[in-house]
Amino acid sequence: MQNALFVGVSSQVALQRELDVIANNMANVSTNGFKSRNSRFQEYLMPVAQADSFTPPDRRISYVIDQGTTLNLDQGPVEQTGNPLDIAVKGNAFIAVQAPNGGGERYTRNGALTVNAQGQLVTSDGYPVAGDGGPIAVNPQETGLSIGPDGTVSTNLGIRGRIKLVTFANPGALVNEGANLYSSPSPARPAGIDGRVESGALERSNVRPVLEMTRLMDVNRSYAMVTSMISRMDELRGSAISKLANVA
């Protein structure tokens, strides 16, 4: 009976984690370049007694272990905006940006760029876009700003820099840092021919709302079933204790 309660609790913890992941995905349906996550779980079999004297032998007890989440790198839908500072990143490349307070490089798929008061090319959250030769700056007097497929930023005065596009040996290991930024436990490498952008367009979130809503309903039903099972087991245990206490 006690084992059943422990198994139920492990399932509830896993389902709660799944619910958190789904909620975060749904909250970012409209976030440019957002990549959804999926939960990963693993079965854990409790070690059993090795003695041969048990009749019947111990049954294997299966628990649920949270193994973290995986990053869904599927391309989100690309929407034409006509804004020359908007770029949609293609493939598994990421835009390198400068984190605040000297925090080093971070990476994003949010291609909604703008020019700040200092003339620097920045993301919509204000993070300076890294260039191959340092920050990319544009003078207010310059006109005709455009971004080429390889990330080259040009104006009427010529090339002003090239957006640093990077990729990773294992992009699925990227860590969410908030504000649609990622950090990486392994070094970034130049994206090369894999790093292409489409100017005048934005990559939207790759979250599929209908699928996430279906997952949400499934998780809620499963959580309710486990909660009901735990409640029944608790009532059964209380009833057994009460009856045993009344034995003369």
UniProtKB/TrEMBL annotation:
Annotated ranges, domain Flagellar hook protein FlgE/F/G-like D1: 88-154
Residues of the Flagellar basal-body/hook protein C-terminal domain: 199-242
Keywords: Bacterial flagellum, Cell projection, Cilium, Flagellum
Pfam families, A to Z: Flg_bb_rod, Flg_bbr_C, LlgE_F_G_D1
InterPro entries: Flag_bb_rod_N, Flagellar_FlgE/F/G, Flg_bb/hook_C_dom, FlgE/F/G-like, FlgF, LlgE_F_G-like_D1
Alphabetized SUPFAM superfamilies for the sequence: Flagellar hook protein flgE (SSF117143)
Main location: other
Segment forming the signal sequence: none
All copies of domain Flagellar basal body rod protein N-terminal, residue ranges: 7-35
Self-association state and partner proteins as the record states: The basal body constitutes a major portion of the flagellar organelle and consists of five rings (E,L,P,S, and M) mounted on a central rod. The rod consists of about 26 subunits of FlgG in the distal portion, and FlgB, FlgC and FlgF are thought to build up the proximal portion of the rod with about 6 subunits each.
Family: Belongs to the flagella basal body rod proteins family.
Protein name (Swiss-Prot/TrEMBL): Flagellar basal-body rod protein FlgF
Organism, scientific name: Methylobacterium komagatae
Gene for this chain: flgF
